[in-house]
Design a protein that fits this description.
This protein has 329 residues and is of the alpha/beta class. 29% of the residues lie in helices and 23% in strands. It is built from eleven helices and 14 strands. The strands form three sheets. A seven-stranded mixed β-sheet has the order 9-8-10-6-11-14-13. A five-stranded mixed β-sheet has the order 2-1-3-4-5. A two-stranded antiparallel ribbon has the order 7-12. Strand 13 and strand 14 form a beta hairpin. Helix 4 runs parallel beside helix 5.
Length: 329
């Protein structure tokens, strides 16, 4: 549970720590949490330092024999702040559980090696893969210098995303809603199309889990001075990259999803949630131009709903298919 709590703490860092990765940390002693923290603004303390300072204040300065749970490998280099590994070594912490190996070439295993050389045991603890999922966007940003974009659609069993009047329709169950809110808490921003905004004005907040609300962005023709859809989309993503954002969630309606399917490399992951609900008539997301370069990487149940995760490849082609529930893909 300590790593899961550290991950919850990390989501609170997203709004202010960019372009640095969001990190959470918990110091444990004799099975009791004595200090915790998350990454502060650029140039200020990293999560490990905040947690250690908090633990020292709470425990009279004695951390001998304690353990540190941190979501990302501690840094071992001088940047805007000194190496976190140096503070960990001096603190008396005997064991470090880390959730993900930092892909930054300046770290990338060097932090773990430095701790081991100092006699501190290090153990990878991924919280059932949640830390790997959380840092997928960070890994992408390190390599590609652009935000990781996740496109999400929820549909009925017969392929509809809204009722016949185009009004908002509760499609997925409570478990899927919790998962969606967790995903929002992991993201810097959530984008919806102008049509969805005008029809539903969705909150796009984090209400069912702990974490900070992502920035709400409306992608609409009214927000741009001319230009094609693709030009405007890339301009938006580039502007978010300049702000240091790592992960963007797109909760798309029919128009936005269809346009994104036609733009090469417009997103990196596609989540398709399908509920057992059937409404027989409504607004379809018309997946007739679903990219052929999508690879199904994971399938799992959220209560009575089915979630399929697809990743994109660099090779981009378009094929004609129909929504799940209407025919076999």
């Amino acid at each position: 549970m300590s790593m899961l709590h550290a991950l919850e703490l990390a989501t609170n860092a997203i709004k202010n720590c960019r372009p640095n990765p969001a990190v959470g940390a918990v110091v444990m002693k004799n099975g009791i949490a004595i200090g915790e923290g998350f990454t502060k603004e650029v140039g200020k303390d990293h999560a490990e330092i905040v947690a250690i300072k908090n633990a020292i204040a709470n425990n009279g300065g004695n951390l001998e024999g304690s353990e540190l749970f941190v979501t990302l490998e501690p840094c071992s280099h001088f940047g805007r702040t000194p190496p976190c590994t140096d503070t960990i070594i001096k603190s008396g912490i005997k064991k470090v559980f880390y959730g993900f190996l930092d892909p930054n070439p300046q770290v990338e295993g060097k932090g773990i090696a430095k701790l081991n050389e100092a006699g501190i045991e290090t153990i990878l603890k991924t919280a059932n893969g949640k830390t790997s999922d959380f840092y997928e966007s960070y890994s992408w940003c390190v390599k590609n210098k652009t935000p990781f974009v996740t496109l999400k659609i929820a549909q009925t069993a017969d392929g509809f995303i809204a009722g016949a009047d185009k009004k908002r329709l509760k499609i997925t169950g409570e478990e899927s809603q919790i998962k969606l809110h967790e995903l929002r808490s992991w993201c810097d921003a959530v984008i919806v199309g102008g049509g969805t905004f005008r029809t539903d004005n969705p909150q796009l907040t984090v209400r069912k889990v702990r974490g900070a609300n992502p920035q709400k962005i409306i992608f609409s023709r009214e927000n741009f001075n001319g230009g094609t859809f693709a030009e405007n989309w890339h301009a938006l993503i580039n502007s978010l990259a300049q702000k240091g954002m790592h992960h963007i969630l797109v909760e798309a309606g029919a128009n936005l999803s269809q346009n994104l399917f036609l733009i090469p490399n417009s997103f990196q992951k596609f989540l398709l949630w399908t509920s057992p609900l059937r409404i027989e008539n409504g607004l379809s997301w018309n997946s007739t131009l679903l990219p052929h370069n999508l690879t199904l990487t994971k399938t799992y149940s959220q209560g009575n709903d089915l979630c399929e995760e697809f990743s994109t490849s660099l090779d981009y082609r378009v094929s004609r298919v129909v929504a799940r529930g209407q025919a076999t893909r």
